[in-house]
Amino acid sequence: xxxxxxxxxxxxxxxxxxxxxxxxxxxxxxxxxxxxxxxxxxxxxxxxxxxxxxxxxxxxxxxxxxxxxxxxxxxxxxxxxxxxxxxxxxxxxxxxxxxxxxxxxxxxxxxxxxxxxxxxxxxxxxxxxxxxxxxxxxxxxxxxxxxxxxxxxxxxxxxxxxxxxxxxxxxxxxxxxxxxxxxxxxxxxxxxxxxxxxxxxxxxxxxxxxxxxxxxxxxxxxxxxxxxxxxxxxxxxxxxx
Length: 241
Known about the structure:
By secondary structure, this protein is α/β, with parallel strands linked by helices. 59% of the residues lie in helices and 10% in strands.
């Protein structure tokens, strides 16, 4: 411990015994816990939220085959040299970036990295495009810059109505970029204008939670297909040897 740190520690006021006990268990004194009453309305809000997870899960279960097909097709495209572009707004942007991180990094096991770009994450391009062309053109211009025939564009939106995602889908169609939509309840404009869609029949917050489960399900299928094709390629090498 450095002298500077020791002095800083010495200057801190002593903790109240109750606060010290809570700090030892990693909980601040002002953070609600079992010994602090919670209003009935708050408990009910949490209960309803958790109950609403179930419709999202059931909606996803009914579309499991489509999620599996997306994962397998994504593997085929990325193994063939195409790339994934992904976009969303707000929480959907975070989930788009979650998926691209799984593909460029890894999901479960060790494998080669794959090309996947979150269109919202390039901050200088995002602010320049929004400033010069308007927010509605934010993703469409990037699709025109990065999209190549055979690529896949995945668009995430709980409402399915975001103008910048709709314009991105239109731009992708002109470039022969396949478009998939992950949305809240359908029908909605984004699901209708994309080549394929998984619409989760749940309230917005729970639909967005469902999106993350859907992305992980796609990753499961993707990884299984990459591994399968890898084994097939090894078998062909062995036969030629």
